[in-house]
Amino acid sequence: MNRREDGFGCPRNKGFSLVELIIVIGIIAVLAAAIAPALIRYITKSRKATDVETADIILHAVNAAYAEDYSYEGEVDNVVQNADRIDTSKKVSVTVGAEAEYDIEMIAVAQDGDTFENNFKPQSHFLSMVRKVLGKESSGNKDFSTPKCRTDSGNGKPDGFLIARRLGEHNSTERFEIWLVDDNQNPIYRLEPDCCNEYK
Fold this sequence. Notes:
Elements: H1 18-70, E1 75-76, E2 79-80, E3 91-94, E4 102-111, H2 124-134, E5 160-167, E6 173-181, E7 187-192
Antiparallel strand pairs: 1-2, 3-4, 4-5, 5-6, 6-7
Helix pairs in contact: 1-2
């Protein structure tokens, strides 16, 4: 029998041929192509869930700050503070899914590392309390102002968080809401309460 041997009398290991390597690489490529879309969907869903969780934290901070401000009887820059005062210049109409259109007051937007602030003086103390509860009174990192999911889910690409207040007839206040806004600060997805279907 004719057998090729190395210098020590052992059979030489031939290794993989080029054809075998190409077949293995092809199988890996097919598997990667099949798994990639599911992985991308999973990552997107995870990022959306993180945004909804962040919105829940913001909403709890807003409600806690409102409870504190409700009993506050003071002034900031010579302006009497009252979180119940509505800034009608920030009133916009929104629609969520099949719900009827309703009005919200856009209280404060935070984008790209900013904290929640506005120029409506009667709400200064209220927003200061919101930032304190969130730990953002002196810090401006991006945890609470940059959405994790930055892809368009049907209404636009998220660019920041919005603290809003749902308004009823004659500008009566109904509840606080947390929205995502686009880069022009237009409300595009309601996250809390009752996250819109587009963002689930």
